[in-house]
Every structure is written in structure tokens, then in C-alpha cells.
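Q: Got a minute? One more chain.
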Amino acid sequence: MGKLQSKFSIHTTKYRANGSVGEVGPAQAALQHSPAHSDAVTAVAALEPDLCVSGARDKSVALCSWRAGAVLQRFTGHQQEVTKVTSAPASSRVFSASRDKTALMWELQGTPGPSQRFAAHELVVTGLAASPDGSQLCTGSRDNTVCKWDTETGRCLRRALTRRNLVTHLCWVPGEPYIIQTSEDRTVRLWDLRPLEVAHSFPAKRHIQTCCDVSPDGRLCLSTSSGSAGEGCEATLWDLRQTRSHVCEYKGHFQTTTSGVFLPWGPALTPSIATASLDSTVKVWDRDTAACLATLYLDGAGPLSSLAACDSSTLLCATSSSGIHVLRLREGVGPALEEVGVF
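A: Always. Here it is, folded:
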């Protein structure tokens, strides 16, 4: 799975925070490697220090080195498309969800087969969140349910049914027994995992909420919206503290915003977030002012499905047509987002 050739992006327009177009010059060479998957990549998650896990329509889960663009291990066991992947930072476990109505647990140091299977949903599993130590897992589905699992035994500890709650994404709140959940009913919910009950529902948006992320300090939540022709398509910042209020919106995509992540703080970068869209663009935003700092159009990538932040300057983007792209935020007169690798 080594380097095959150099690939040059066609679109290199850069956008300043004030919305004006910056210089357009020769594209940065992007190293193209053998693809990690044989079909559309649906989800990607970053692992420390330079690894990632991804899932795809080819039913497989891949552990990769994003620096080398190489598949280190492939896990097979799902019967249909993988919809979500996540990891437990303090363990060697990764998890995947699928259209086959199950979630699976994989040991990074184990065999290619799953070490645990979680089956209680009646429809596709569309939400997945693991506790930092890997001892508990939460899953959500289009069947309107959220489940809490013991990963050692595979036993479903609790199952909550909420009318019209077609789950789209789950995210664990760092250091807390809570998860954030987005839904097709346009609502973002905060769940208390101890009784598995909704602790708070944020005001409903105008469009389906497609994805969510929580800041590393657990104080803020980000959700993304469906939409078309620039209507909707935004990301929304929410306060998870006592006020639990809407903070600001990030508007600029022209089709559904499928993924949004907080970027780890870096010495030269203001607190920032990144979003990806069906319009094939990735945008980086100033978290506090909502100014767009950089935009990159991934020509030929098709709809973008998932983002993962590796460090303060590196993003992974899963695409429907061209695998996983490694993106780098480069500092200069103004931040510029560039493609440096594809696998």
C-alpha cells in the first residue's frame, strides 16, 4: 500500500475570513496511494498518534496509517454497508455500525473477526459512541431507539424509545456520563446515560440535523444541518453549560452539511471548527466569530461523508468517489486548506 503517484488538485482557490477570494496558484502535489476501500467511504475517525479507522460501502473496516496512506489491518464481519466508526481513546478497541442492524467491536491487537456483536435494533444503526475506556457503547438507529451496552458481555443494559427520533449521529461528552445525539426530527438531544433519559433537548432547527461533535473540554457542541441551494446547510454551535443555548451558526455550504468537527487548538490557530458537505467542499471556520477561514473544493470526490481531526492542522475527509483525503491547514497571510494525500 505504498505511494503510487503524485496527484494534483485542480481547484486551489483560497478564501479569506472576510469572504474575499485570495490568490490562485499552482496546486500542491497530493500523494495518491492505493485506496483503503473498494467502494464509497462512509465514515472515518482519527486514532493517536497517526492512525485512523474507516468504514465503507464495501462492508469492511480498515485500520490505516494516514501518514503513509497504508492499510495496516482490515476487519470483516458486517453483512451490509458500514455506516459509522468510532474508537475508545483509552483502549485498543474500535467500533463500527452497519445497515445490517448491528454494531461490532474490534480489537486492534486481535484477529480480523469481531470480538463482540451488539444486536437490538430493528433498522440500520446510524449512531455510535464509545466511552473513553471502551467499557460502554451507545448505539442509535432509524428505529427511534438509543441503546446502552456493556462491551465485555455484549448485553444491552438499557433501551430507550423516543417517538420520531430517527437517530443520525451520537457523540460522547468528554469526562461526563452524557452523549449528544442528532436526529431527523431536526432536534439535538443531550442524554444522561445513567438512566438513559433525555436530559435536555435544544430548540428544533429548520432542517434535519445530520451530525454532532463535542469540544475537547466538553463545554460546546456542534451540529450540522441538511439543506439544498444554500438553504439550511449550516452548522450550529451550542453551549452545553448551564445556559444550554444557541451560540452561533456557520453558513456557506450550498448542499447538506454532512459532518462537523472541532479542531484541536494549535499555537498559531484561533479556536476553529471544520465542516464537510455534499457540495464537495471542506470549510474551516473561526469558532467564535463564524468567519470562514479557508475553503477547499475536492474535485471529483463526490459527496463528502465524514471528517476527522488528527491534530490542529490535519484533517481526514471520507468521500463517496475518491477514498480518504488528507488535508492540511497551512498558516500564512491567511490560513489555506490544501490536499496532501489520498488513500
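A: DSSP finds no helices and 32 strands in the chain.
Q: Perfect, thanks.
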